[in-house]
C-alpha cells in the first residue's frame, strides 16, 4: 500500500518524539547524579532545564499523535493545530524555567558556594553535550523532512540545551578547577537569559501558527507560478494560505474563459491543483473558478473587491492594488498585485 507524504511525515515525527523523550530521561539521570556529586548551580540549572524538556517532550509526543489524527465531523481541517498548542506550552515552560534558574543564579552570585567533585560534573556535562548534539542533528533532519512545528519547538529546547551545556561546562570548570564559584553562578545566569530568549521565539512561532499566519513570500510565489503555468488561467486572486500542523491550506480564485464547459473548467483547475501538489505534497488545495470579466464580487466576510483584468497598455505597477496575472512577451505568466509576494494588500491577500 502506498503511504501518502503526510502519513510518512507523521510517522517521522512519531519516531523522533519518542527518541526525544528517551534522551530527556537519560540526561535527567546523568545530571541528577552530577548535581549530587558537585553541588554546582550550573548543573542545577541544566538539570532543571532537562526536567522541563522532558515535560515539553512528553507534550510534543502527545501533540504530534493528536495532530496526525484524520479530519472528523467536528474538525474538518484535521487536528494539526495541536502542534501549535504544544509549542505554546513549551514556550511557557521554558520561560518559567529561565525565571527559576535566573533567581537561583542571582542568589548564588551574592552567596557563592563551592563546587565539589568537579571531575564528575565535567564528565557528565561533556557527555550531555555529545548526546544532545546527536539528538539536535536528528531533529533537524526530521524538521527538514516534515516541517513539524512541534518538533521544531522541541529542537529549539535541545539546541538551547546544547549552548547552555557549553556555558555550564565553563561554569563548572571555573568553580571546581579555578576556585571561582561566582563564575559558576554567572554561567547559570547566562543559561537563564538564553532560555528566556528561546522561549520568546517559540512563543512567536506558536502564535503565528495558531493565528493562521500566511505562508512565506517564496511559498506564495511558487503557488502562483505553479497555477499560472497554464496560459488558460489568469488573474489569480483572493489567495489565502495557512498552516494546520504540517498541512498547508491553500485556496484561491482564478479567472477562466466564460465559454468553457463545467467539465473543461474542472479539468483545468484539477491540473492546477496537481501542479501545486508537486511543489507542496502536504497541501490541501481549493481553487474556485470565476468566469473572466463576468463574475460579480463574492466570497463572504473576508472577500476583497474583485479585481478587473487590466488592459495590456495599462498594466498596474507591482505596488498597485489590483491583483492580476498577465502574459509576458516570452509567454510565461507573471503574477502581480496582492497575490504577488512583492505587493500584498489586505488581510487575506
Question: What do you see in this structure?
Answer:
- This is Cation transporter.
- It is found in: Membrane.
- This protein has 349 residues and is mostly helical.
- It has two domains: 5-210, Up-down Bundle (Alpha-lytic protease prodomain-like), CATH 1.20.1510; 217-339, Cation efflux protein, cytoplasmic domain (Alpha-Beta Plaits, 2-Layer Sandwich).
- Helix content is 59%, strand content 11%.
- The chain has eight helices and five strands; from the N terminus they run H-H-H-H-H-H-H-E-E-H-E-E-E.
- The two termini are 39 Å apart.
What is the compact description of this entry?
Its main location: membrane. With 349 residues, the chain is mainly α. The chain has helices at residues 5-38, 41-67, 81-110, 118-146, 149-176, 181-210, 217-227, 262-279; strands at residues 234-244, 247-256, 283-291, 324-327, 333-336.
- Largest sheet features: 3 strands, mixed
CATH topology of the largest domain: Alpha-lytic protease prodomain-like
Can you count the helices?
A: 8
**Biggest sheet, spatial arrangement of strands:** 1-2-3
Backbone shape: elongated
Question: Could you tell me the radius of gyration in angstroms?
Answer: 26 Å
Decide which structural class fits the backbone. Answer: mainly alpha
CATH superfamily of the largest domain: Cation efflux protein transmembrane domain
**Would you state the CATH class of the largest domain?**
Mainly Alpha
Pfam families: Cation_efflux (PF01545), ZT_dimer (PF16916)
Subcellular location: Membrane
Main location: membrane
Keywords: Cell membrane, Membrane, Transmembrane, Transmembrane helix, Transport
Amino acid at each position: 500500500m502506498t503511504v501518502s507524504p503526510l502519513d510518512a511525515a507523521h510517522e517521522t515525527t512519531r519516531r523522533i518524539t519518542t527518541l526525544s523523550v528517551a534522551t530527556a530521561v537519560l540526561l535527567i539521570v546523568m545530571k541528577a547524579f552530577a548535581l549530587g556529586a558537585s553541588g554546582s548551580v550550573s548543573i542545577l540549572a541544566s538539570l532543571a532545564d532537562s526536567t522541563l524538556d522532558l515535560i515539553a517532550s512528553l507534550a510534543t509526543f502527545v501533540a504530534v499523535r493528536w495532530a496526525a489524527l484524520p479530519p472528523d465531523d467536528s474538525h474538518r481541517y484535521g487536528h494539526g493545530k495541536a502542534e501549535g498548542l504544544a509549542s505554546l506550552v513549551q514556550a511557557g515552560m521554558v520561560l518559567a524555567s529561565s525565571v527559576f534558574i535566573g533567581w537561583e543564579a542571582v542568589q548564588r552570585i551574592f552567596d557563592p558556594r563551592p563546587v565539589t567533585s568537579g571531575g564528575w560534573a565535567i564528565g557528565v556535562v561533556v557527555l550531555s553535550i555529545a548526546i544532545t548534539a546527536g539528538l539536535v542533528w536528528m531533529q533537524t533532519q526530521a524538521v527538514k523532512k516534515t516541517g513539524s512545528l512541534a518538533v521544531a519547538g522541541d529542537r529549539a529546547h535541545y539546541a538551547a540545551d546544547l549552548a547552555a551545556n557549553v556555558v555550564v561546562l565553563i561554569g563548572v570548570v571555573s568553580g571546581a578547577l579555578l576556585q571561582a564559584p561566582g563564575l559558576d553562578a554567572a554561567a547559570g545566569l547566562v543559561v537563564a537569559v538564553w532560555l528566556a530568549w528561546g522561549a520568546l521565539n517559540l512563543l512567536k512561532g506558536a502564535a503565528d501558527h495558531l493565528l493562521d499566519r500566511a505562508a512565506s513570500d517564496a511559498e506564495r510565489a511558487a503557488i502562483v507560478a505553479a497555477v499560472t503555468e497554464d496560459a488558460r488561467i489568469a488573474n489569480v486572486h483572493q489567495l489565502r494560505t495557512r498552516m494546520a500542523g504540517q498541512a498547508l491550506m491553500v485556496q484561491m480564485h482564478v479567472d477562466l474563459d466564460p465559454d468553457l464547459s463545467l467539465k473543461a473548467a474542472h479539468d483545468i483547475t484539477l491540473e492546477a491543483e496537481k501542479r501545486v501538489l508537486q511543489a507542496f505534497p502536504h497541501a490541501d488545495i481549493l481553487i474556485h473558478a470565476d468566469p473572466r470579466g463576468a463574475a460579480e464580487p463574492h466570497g463572504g466576510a473576508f472577500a476583497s473587491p474583485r479585481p478587473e483584468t487590466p488592459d495590456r497598455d495599462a498594466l498596474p505597477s507591482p505596488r498597485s492594488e489590483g491583483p492580476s496575472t498577465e502574459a509576458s512577451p516570452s509567454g510565461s505568466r507573471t503574477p502581480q498585485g496582492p497575490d504577488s509576494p512583492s505587493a500584498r494588500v489586505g488581510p487575506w491577500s
